Amino acid sequence: MPRSREQAFNEIVRRVRKECFGKGPERIHTVFVDNMAISVLQGNLTPTEKFISRTPEGAEMVRLARTSMIQELYKRKVPEGLEEVAGSKFLYLFSDFKVEEDMGVSVFIFERSIPKEPLPDGFVCGKQANQAQESAE
Fold first, then answer.
1. Helix%, strand%, coil% for the chain, nearest 5
2. Chain segment 50-105, per-residue pLDDT in tens
């Protein structure tokens, strides 16, 4: 059975956040609307971030770090597989984070509408499984 685009997209988002912050979101819900992927991410904060965010100043520092760092990361390099899953060139990322709720929202903007159909069988992080196998031989 083909994987959904949303599931594959969420896996990429989770991987990138884990690499950047040391912890990926516990739950991600993504919807595709025209040329946008809108993701709600819950359960993001590390124990250290939770400790820092106990004061208003600390919470603002965590919010700024969470939003600025991820935007800068996507600006420097598009994560592997993101454009293949979306079927379009990545253009912009808008994001915000509500520290008190441990919830973030990211809006990914692509050049063209994101296809509705599921990914083809054997789709592996931006490559067809047989292509990956051929390069391994």
1. 45, 25, 30
2. 999 999 999 999 999 999 999 999 999 999 999 999 999 999 999 999 999 999 99
For residue 64, which phi and psi values (nearest 5 degrees)? -65, -45
CA gap 106, 95 in Å, rounded: 4
CATH code for the structural domain at 5-136:
3.30.980
Q: Please report where in the chains the tokens 């490559």 appear, as a residue.
A: 127
Cα dist. 98→49, 85, 101, 103, 104 in Å? 13, 27, 6, 5, 6
Full-model pTM: 0.85
Domain ranges for the chain: 5-136
Mean of the pLDDT values across residues 35-47? 97
- 3 state DSSP class of 125: coil
